[in-house]
Protein backbone atom coordinates (compact mmCIF):
# COMPACT_ATOMS: atom_id res chain seq x y z
CA UNK A 1 0.00 0.00 0.00
CA UNK A 2 1.38 3.42 -0.99
CA UNK A 3 -0.21 6.63 0.28
CA UNK A 4 0.21 10.27 -0.67
CA UNK A 5 0.12 12.58 2.37
CA UNK A 6 -0.54 16.28 1.72
CA UNK A 7 -0.04 18.02 5.06
CA UNK A 8 1.89 21.18 6.00
CA UNK A 9 2.43 20.55 9.73
CA UNK A 10 6.01 19.28 10.18
CA UNK A 11 5.56 17.50 13.52
CA UNK A 12 2.26 15.92 12.52
CA UNK A 13 3.58 14.84 9.12
CA UNK A 14 6.71 13.24 10.54
CA UNK A 15 4.74 11.41 13.23
CA UNK A 16 2.15 10.16 10.75
CA UNK A 17 4.76 8.94 8.26
CA UNK A 18 6.55 7.11 11.06
CA UNK A 19 3.33 5.43 12.20
CA UNK A 20 2.51 4.39 8.64
CA UNK A 21 6.02 3.01 8.16
CA UNK A 22 5.65 0.96 11.34
CA UNK A 23 2.55 -0.64 9.78
CA UNK A 24 4.45 -1.48 6.58
CA UNK A 25 2.74 1.29 4.60
CA UNK A 26 4.89 3.43 2.31
CA UNK A 27 4.06 7.10 1.78
CA UNK A 28 5.11 10.25 -0.02
CA UNK A 29 4.72 13.53 1.85
CA UNK A 30 3.97 16.89 0.23
CA UNK A 31 3.45 20.15 2.13
CA UNK A 32 2.03 22.48 -0.52
CA UNK A 33 -0.99 22.37 -2.81
CA UNK A 34 1.23 23.50 -5.69
CA UNK A 35 3.25 20.29 -5.43
CA UNK A 36 0.20 18.01 -5.69
CA UNK A 37 -0.25 16.08 -8.94
CA UNK A 38 -3.01 17.29 -11.31
CA UNK A 39 -4.43 13.75 -11.46
CA UNK A 40 -3.47 10.17 -10.62
CA UNK A 41 -3.85 8.29 -13.89
CA UNK A 42 -1.03 5.77 -14.18
CA UNK A 43 0.43 6.49 -10.73
CA UNK A 44 1.14 4.04 -7.90
CA UNK A 45 -0.85 6.02 -5.31
CA UNK A 46 -3.45 3.84 -3.60
CA UNK A 47 -4.99 6.53 -1.40
CA UNK A 48 -4.53 10.25 -0.64
CA UNK A 49 -4.54 11.72 2.87
CA UNK A 50 -5.47 15.36 2.29
CA UNK A 51 -5.29 18.19 4.82
CA UNK A 52 -7.76 20.98 4.07
CA UNK A 53 -5.68 23.89 5.42
CA UNK A 54 -2.55 24.25 3.29
CA UNK A 55 -0.26 27.30 3.22
CA UNK A 56 -0.86 28.02 -0.47
CA UNK A 57 -4.44 26.85 -0.96
CA UNK A 58 -7.40 24.81 0.21
CA UNK A 59 -7.63 21.03 0.06
CA UNK A 60 -11.17 21.34 -1.30
CA UNK A 61 -9.75 22.97 -4.44
CA UNK A 62 -7.36 20.06 -4.98
CA UNK A 63 -10.18 17.57 -4.47
CA UNK A 64 -12.39 19.38 -6.99
CA UNK A 65 -9.56 19.42 -9.52
CA UNK A 66 -8.93 15.69 -9.17
CA UNK A 67 -12.59 14.74 -9.45
CA UNK A 68 -12.98 17.12 -12.38
CA UNK A 69 -10.15 15.25 -14.11
CA UNK A 70 -12.00 11.94 -13.45
CA UNK A 71 -9.35 10.80 -10.94
CA UNK A 72 -11.08 8.13 -8.89
CA UNK A 73 -8.23 7.49 -6.45
CA UNK A 74 -9.62 7.29 -2.89
CA UNK A 75 -9.18 10.49 -0.86
CA UNK A 76 -9.47 10.78 2.91
CA UNK A 77 -9.76 14.35 4.15
CA UNK A 78 -7.88 15.23 7.36
CA UNK A 79 -9.26 18.30 9.07
CA UNK A 80 -9.39 20.15 12.37
CA UNK A 81 -12.84 21.43 11.38
CA UNK A 82 -15.26 19.32 13.38
CA UNK A 83 -18.61 20.76 12.31
CA UNK A 84 -21.09 18.54 10.48
CA UNK A 85 -21.28 21.09 7.65
CA UNK A 86 -17.52 20.84 7.01
CA UNK A 87 -17.57 17.03 7.10
CA UNK A 88 -20.49 16.86 4.70
CA UNK A 89 -18.81 19.40 2.40
CA UNK A 90 -15.85 17.04 2.14
CA UNK A 91 -17.98 14.03 1.35
CA UNK A 92 -20.22 15.84 -1.12
CA UNK A 93 -17.12 17.28 -2.76
CA UNK A 94 -15.90 13.80 -3.64
CA UNK A 95 -13.94 12.63 -0.58
CA UNK A 96 -14.27 8.97 0.34
CA UNK A 97 -13.98 9.66 4.06
CA UNK A 98 -13.38 12.53 6.49
CA UNK A 99 -11.46 12.18 9.74
CA UNK A 100 -11.26 14.96 12.33
CA UNK A 101 -7.98 15.81 14.07
CA UNK A 102 -6.78 14.74 16.54
CA UNK A 103 -7.26 11.07 15.80
CA UNK A 104 -5.65 7.76 16.69
CA UNK A 105 -3.33 6.42 14.00
CA UNK A 106 -4.97 3.02 14.35
CA UNK A 107 -8.32 4.55 13.40
CA UNK A 108 -6.84 6.27 10.35
CA UNK A 109 -5.22 3.07 9.10
CA UNK A 110 -8.48 1.16 9.66
CA UNK A 111 -10.35 3.78 7.63
CA UNK A 112 -7.76 3.64 4.84
CA UNK A 113 -8.23 -0.11 4.59
CA UNK A 114 -12.03 0.24 4.60
CA UNK A 115 -11.89 2.82 1.80
CA UNK A 116 -9.60 0.60 -0.27
CA UNK A 117 -11.94 -2.37 0.20
CA UNK A 118 -14.82 -0.28 -1.15
CA UNK A 119 -12.66 0.96 -4.01
CA UNK A 120 -11.60 -2.58 -4.94
CA UNK A 121 -15.25 -3.59 -5.39
CA UNK A 122 -15.57 -0.77 -7.92
CA UNK A 123 -12.44 -1.72 -9.85
CA UNK A 124 -14.03 -3.17 -13.01
CA UNK A 125 -13.82 -0.81 -15.97
CA UNK A 126 -17.49 -0.71 -16.94
CA UNK A 127 -20.80 -2.08 -15.68
CA UNK A 128 -23.72 -2.45 -18.06
CA UNK A 129 -27.35 -2.70 -16.89
CA UNK A 130 -29.60 -2.45 -19.95
CA UNK A 131 -28.91 0.95 -21.54
CA UNK A 132 -27.24 2.19 -18.36
CA UNK A 133 -23.45 2.03 -18.18
CA UNK A 134 -21.30 2.89 -15.17
CA UNK A 135 -17.52 3.37 -14.98
CA UNK A 136 -16.77 3.23 -11.24
CA UNK A 137 -13.10 4.19 -11.42
CA UNK A 138 -13.85 7.29 -13.52
CA UNK A 139 -16.99 8.25 -11.57
CA UNK A 140 -18.97 8.31 -14.82
CA UNK A 141 -22.46 7.06 -15.66
CA UNK A 142 -24.26 7.12 -19.02
CA UNK A 143 -27.80 6.39 -20.09
CA UNK A 144 -28.22 5.50 -23.75
CA UNK A 145 -24.77 6.91 -24.42
CA UNK A 146 -25.53 10.26 -22.78
CA UNK A 147 -23.53 11.28 -19.71
CA UNK A 148 -25.55 11.66 -16.50
CA UNK A 149 -24.96 14.61 -14.20
CA UNK A 150 -24.99 12.98 -10.78
CA UNK A 151 -23.89 14.36 -7.43
CA UNK A 152 -21.25 12.32 -5.53
CA UNK A 153 -23.98 10.90 -3.25
CA UNK A 154 -26.25 10.03 -6.22
CA UNK A 155 -23.37 8.32 -8.00
CA UNK A 156 -22.47 6.28 -4.91
CA UNK A 157 -26.11 5.32 -4.44
CA UNK A 158 -26.33 4.18 -8.06
CA UNK A 159 -23.18 2.09 -7.59
CA UNK A 160 -24.59 0.37 -4.53
CA UNK A 161 -27.82 -0.50 -6.35
CA UNK A 162 -25.91 -1.61 -9.46
CA UNK A 163 -23.69 -4.13 -7.66
CA UNK A 164 -26.54 -6.67 -7.81
CA UNK A 165 -29.16 -5.54 -10.34
CA UNK A 166 -32.57 -6.99 -9.54
CA UNK A 167 -31.66 -7.66 -5.90
CA UNK A 168 -33.22 -5.63 -3.09
CA UNK A 169 -30.76 -3.48 -1.15
CA UNK A 170 -32.07 -2.62 2.32
CA UNK A 171 -32.39 1.02 3.30
CA UNK A 172 -30.22 0.40 6.33
CA UNK A 173 -27.43 -1.06 4.19
CA UNK A 174 -27.61 1.89 1.80
CA UNK A 175 -27.49 4.32 4.69
CA UNK A 176 -24.36 2.72 6.14
CA UNK A 177 -22.58 2.54 2.78
CA UNK A 178 -23.31 6.18 1.96
CA UNK A 179 -21.96 7.46 5.26
CA UNK A 180 -18.31 6.65 6.02
CA UNK A 181 -18.31 8.77 9.20
CA UNK A 182 -19.58 5.91 11.34
CA UNK A 183 -23.22 6.99 11.54
CA UNK A 184 -25.84 6.04 8.95
CA UNK A 185 -27.47 8.62 6.71
CA UNK A 186 -31.02 9.46 7.72
CA UNK A 187 -33.61 7.41 5.81
CA UNK A 188 -35.33 10.63 4.74
CA UNK A 189 -32.09 11.69 3.04
CA UNK A 190 -31.93 8.32 1.26
CA UNK A 191 -35.44 8.89 -0.08
CA UNK A 192 -34.47 12.34 -1.37
CA UNK A 193 -31.40 10.92 -3.15
CA UNK A 194 -33.51 8.09 -4.62
CA UNK A 195 -36.07 10.60 -5.88
CA UNK A 196 -33.37 12.68 -7.55
CA UNK A 197 -31.76 9.58 -9.06
CA UNK A 198 -35.11 8.38 -10.44
CA UNK A 199 -35.61 11.75 -12.10
CA UNK A 200 -32.25 11.41 -13.84
CA UNK A 201 -32.26 7.76 -14.92
CA UNK A 202 -36.00 7.07 -15.16
CA UNK A 203 -38.42 6.29 -12.33
CA UNK A 204 -39.16 2.83 -13.74
CA UNK A 205 -35.53 1.74 -13.22
CA UNK A 206 -35.63 1.90 -9.41
CA UNK A 207 -38.30 -0.21 -7.74
CA UNK A 208 -39.32 0.21 -4.10
CA UNK A 209 -39.62 -2.92 -1.99
CA UNK A 210 -42.02 -1.45 0.54
CA UNK A 211 -40.66 -1.50 4.07
CA UNK A 212 -37.36 -3.04 2.93
CA UNK A 213 -35.38 -1.02 0.38
CA UNK A 214 -34.81 -0.58 -3.34
CA UNK A 215 -33.70 -2.52 -6.40
CA UNK A 216 -32.31 -1.44 -9.75
CA UNK A 217 -33.96 -2.88 -12.86
CA UNK A 218 -32.46 -3.05 -16.40
Automatic annotation (TrEMBL):
<keyword id="KW-0804">Transcription</keyword>
<keyword id="KW-0902">Two-component regulatory system</keyword>
<protein>
    <submittedName>
        <fullName>Response regulator</fullName>
    </submittedName>
</protein>
<dbReference type="Pfam" id="PF00072">
    <property type="entry name" value="Response_reg"/>
</dbReference>
<dbReference type="InterPro" id="IPR001867">
    <property type="entry name" value="OmpR/PhoB-type_DNA-bd"/>
</dbReference>
<dbReference type="InterPro" id="IPR011006">
    <property type="entry name" value="CheY-like_superfamily"/>
</dbReference>
<feature type="domain" description="OmpR/PhoB-type">
    <location>
        <begin position="124"/>
        <end position="218"/>
    </location>
</feature>
<feature type="modified residue" description="4-aspartylphosphate">
    <location>
        <position position="51"/>
    </location>
</feature>
<dbReference type="Pfam" id="PF00486">
    <property type="entry name" value="Trans_reg_C"/>
</dbReference>
<keyword id="KW-0597">Phosphoprotein</keyword>
<feature type="domain" description="Response regulatory">
    <location>
        <begin position="2"/>
        <end position="116"/>
    </location>
</feature>
<dbReference type="InterPro" id="IPR001789">
    <property type="entry name" value="Sig_transdc_resp-reg_receiver"/>
</dbReference>
<keyword id="KW-0805">Transcription regulation</keyword>
<dbReference type="InterPro" id="IPR036388">
    <property type="entry name" value="WH-like_DNA-bd_sf"/>
</dbReference>
<dbReference type="InterPro" id="IPR039420">
    <property type="entry name" value="WalR-like"/>
</dbReference>
<keyword id="KW-0238">DNA-binding</keyword>
<dbReference type="InterPro" id="IPR016032">
    <property type="entry name" value="Sig_transdc_resp-reg_C-effctor"/>
</dbReference>
<feature type="DNA-binding region" description="OmpR/PhoB-type">
    <location>
        <begin position="124"/>
        <end position="218"/>
    </location>
</feature>
Amino acid sequence: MHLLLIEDDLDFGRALQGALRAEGISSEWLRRAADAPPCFHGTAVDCVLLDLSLPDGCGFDLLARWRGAASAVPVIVLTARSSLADRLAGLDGGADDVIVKPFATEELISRVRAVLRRYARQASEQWTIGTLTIEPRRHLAQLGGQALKLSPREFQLLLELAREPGAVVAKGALAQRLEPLGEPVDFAAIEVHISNLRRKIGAERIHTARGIGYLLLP
